[in-house]
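Entry 12.
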Amino acid sequence: MSQTSDGIYRFGVYEVDLTSGELRKSGVRLRLPDQAFRVLVAMLERPSEVVTREDLRTKLWPDGTFVDFDHGLNTIINKLRETLNDAAANPRFIETIARRGYRFIAPVEFGGTRASPPDPAEPQVAHANPIKDLSQASSASLLTTVNEVPAADRRNVRFLFLLLQIMYLIFYVTALARLGHIQDLLEQFSSARWMTAALVISASIGIPVRLYLTSAVAFDLAELSPKFNRLFPVILILDGLWAVAPFLLVPQIGVGLALAATAALIYAPFAQRTLLLMADRSPTPTGRVK
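Predicted 3D structure (tokens):
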């Protein structure tokens, strides 16, 4: 698609000046790294179209350059979203297309001419389901967003996230290994059978979920944060059920310590989500040779 006659792309209160290489908001220049500016221009050149991660790799790192591409591009996209005050969960400008790339979804003007809207026949991942959009917007307003957390050392947050997954795996395996003893403890309750069934079922679901998250963070899976967000409702229910586990140890640790441990475990799923957001914000040396 052709550029504007004055070399400027406009969307919302923002404009991109190709001549000066500037991004401006209401006329005020915003600081944006060169690579992030080039990614933004690549998407503005093809509004409403999917710009693949491979297309962006070719633009940013020519053949023969070996870099940590996935982390580098994720960092660039996060920087763009931060600068544009955008959010992956409820995007206004940059939409993530799972396993493919990104799409600029806001109307773009080229010298007073607005870009054509997306083809209705094309799947609209983020807008095809109004109920899902409402849910995402509500989630984004209630939970912490990537723009609200500080950047932290990526290795540290991955290590802490990994420790939490190992902790839950120990819970599940130990509980199943000592199921007979737990059944004896639950005999005092009239619903002991249902409580035992809930323990076995939740542990059977939790083990593969935790193994997936453990391997994902151990191998530094790309875009783990949005994948975790899709699993978050399941994880929230699982962790909520297991948050009462310390009460099985009341004879050994007392009611007060059991309450404190339960409160910490209730917060655990939100802590995991925040850790992944911090990892998204953490800087990655895009020029590092693998």
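Annotation: The chain is about 55% helix and 10% strand. Residues 1-5, 112-141, 284-290 have pLDDT under 50 and may be disordered.
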